[in-house]
Structures are given as C-alpha cells and as structure tokens.
Amino acid sequence: MIRGTIITENGGYADLHLHTRLSDGTLSVEELLALTKRKGLRCISITDHDNLDSYKIAEGPARDIGIELIPGIEISAVWQGKDIHILGYFCDPTNLALNMELEDFAKQRIARVKAIIKKLNALGIDITYEKVHSYCKGKVIGRPHIAMSLVDEEYIGNFAEAFTKYLGDGCVAFVEKKGLNPQQTIRLIENAGGIAVLAHPYKSGLSDEFIEDMVEWGIKGIEVYSPAQKGAVGRKYKEMAQRFGLVGTGGSDFHTEGGAYPPGCMKMPYTVVQALKECREKSRAEWF
To answer: Is 124 buried (19+), middle (13-18) or exposed (0-12) by CB count in 10 A?
Structure first.
C-alpha cells in the first residue's frame, strides 16, 4: 500500500529518476529530500540501483515536507552481455519475492566487484575490497565505488577515466554482469505490484527494434525526459511512446550535487505522474 502521498493543486513538476548514496549517488536520503524541496518539486521517486531502502527512510520525511513520494527502483537487467536499466514504480517494498531477488543481486554485485579487483591487482593496482567497500553506504556495491577508490589512490585522474581505462565494457578489468534478463525483470516488477519503465534508452544505446521487443515483453513506459535526450532525440522517444501506448516518463538521473543536471532540471510536468498512476490502475485491473 502506498501511504502518505500529498495531493496538491494541479500543476507542478516531478522528477522520477534520482539516486542517493544507498547506491551510486553522493547525498543521503535526507539531503536529497531537502534539495528536491528547495527545487520546488511536487513529486519524486528515488530510484536507487537494485534496492528499495530509500523509500523506507524517505516516506515519513517526504510526507512531512509536502513532497509526494513514489516507491522506485532501477534494476539492472542483462541482455546479450549488456546492461539494460529498467525502472520499477509503485512496487510493494515488502514483497517477499522482490526482496529475495534483491538479496541475490547484492551477492552477485559483491562477487563481481571482487573479480574486478582481482583483475586490477594483476595489473599492479593495489586496492582491496575493504577499501572499495568503505565508499559504499548501503547494500549495493558496484563499479562506481571501485572508481572512487582508484581516484582516491591516484591511479587515475578522474572518475570517468576509471571506466574508459579499466572498468567499462571491453576494458582490461571488465567483468560481465550476471542477472535477470529483461523479461524476468519486468515480471518481477509487475508481480510486486509495480509498473516497469525503460530507463534512458538513448544513453543505453538501445535500438528501435529492441525497444519494440521490450514493448512485447510488457514494458509500460519509456523515459522521454532525460538529460541525454534533448531536441530531436527527445522528440523521437516521445513519438515512440505515443506509437506504442507507453507512458513517457523521466527525470534528471541525479547522482551528485553541483552536477550539470540537478533534480527537476527536465521540467517534467506532474501530468506524467497522473498518467503513470492511470497505467498502474489499468494494469491492476488486468491482473485481477
């Protein structure tokens, strides 16, 4: 059950793609809430990677400051060796099957990080799992935390270099991710009462044909408001959403304060939230 949402007058803006330090962001949940309040947002969803812990922390404080909070998560599915990010909205945070799967994801992430560190050690880079884990403030450890360690130990000059030189696809320390495929991920979200939305298709380099496959597999929305999808690119995905009957959602994909894309920068109207709720109710009627 979703409790404590704030319904105010019509209008306003929403940001449905935000991260905290419970995955790969730099702000605490409380700091992010304060920032979104300062930005004047009416509705937000914190979509940390592979965990729903932020919702449990933010639900009460968000209600207290008058921000509508939608439970959110960004799950990394795997398809032909490629990460496919799928957002889940309105999932029940207490759903047993979802939480069991998320526990497995956490274990897989630890194994992957340790395998990457082993490759880095073989290259003469002396970092440890304990050092990398010190940057992780939640259950979800990943390549960004390795990158932070590499920067701190001065093996590289900046965060992005970690991925272009060591951690990115095909690089010397890359280890392929294991996980659910997109169909399984969509089903996992739906079985937890949620709505599955394809995240940043342009940034992920997804073909139009693959997006059509995702529609066949049951995706209900696609991000059209996204920092990498402006101008003609943004219009293309809005047209695709209309053509396939998808909800065109989005957000800043915010990770760190002071960056180029702060919360609310996409100016996504609250009407998108209303469309997402309508989609959820329609899906619930179909399930029952």
So the answer is: exposed
